[in-house]
Amino acid sequence: MRALGPGSVSSFLKIILDVIYVGLWVWVSLLAIFTVAVLLLSFNPELITSKLHIGSSVDELISKGPLFAGALGAWALLSGGWMVIVERLRRVFSTLTAGDPFHPDNVRRLRVVGLVLAALEIGHYIFAALAKWLAPDTKIVDGSFSLSAWFPVLVVFVLAEVFREGARLRREAELTI
């Protein structure tokens, strides 16, 4: 089986990335809607308590609603980062399917993937610190340093440089008579 070109492994992976991208759009849209709904209901809990007859847990809904909305919003931001990564990878795999792996734009795309991966990891630390500060009694997220989370960031940046060098060599070969 071929790695590049139509009908190759890269074209199959491109199709998978397309499906994941559409799923992420649906997921982020639903998260945004749920975040707004939870936020609105936390400021006016009578809307839900009058329909469900909750009664005693109104105070808990009022106190934890904004925290839950913040967690949903953070999840939506995380999913948005995944969308950016998948979208850039879709474009990289489009060039691989076209048989042009060292397209100059792939360098920028891979750098964006590396930056977003790094931003997601930094955001993970920020979210863990905020969660620990706002809800000290609840273990929501582990904010410890993880080498396995930073390793892919470094790998993507190295791959971007490999693609940059490949694009440079291709340009030089095209100038050769």
* Range of strand content: under 5%
The average pLDDT score comes to: 84
| Unreliable stretches | none
- Give the SSE order as H and E letters: HHHHH
Roughly what percent helix? over 70%
CA-based shape: elongated
Main β-sheet description: none
Query: Structural class, please?
Result: mainly alpha
Number of beta strands = 0
Distance from N terminus to C terminus (CA atoms, Å) equals: 33 Å
Summarize the structure.
This protein has 177 residues and is mainly alpha-helical. It has five helices and no strands.
Walk me through what this model shows.
The protein is mostly helical. The chain has five helices and no strands. It has two domains: 1-79, no CATH class; 102-177. The longest helix is centred in the middle third of the chain and has 40 residues, at 58-97. It starts with 8 loop residues before the first helix and ends with a helix.
Topology at a glance:
Blueprint: H1 9-43, H2 46-52, H3 58-97, H4 104-134, H5 147-175
Helix pairs in contact: 1-3, 3-4, 4-5
Pick out its properties:
5 helices, elongated, 2 domains, 177 residues, mainly alpha
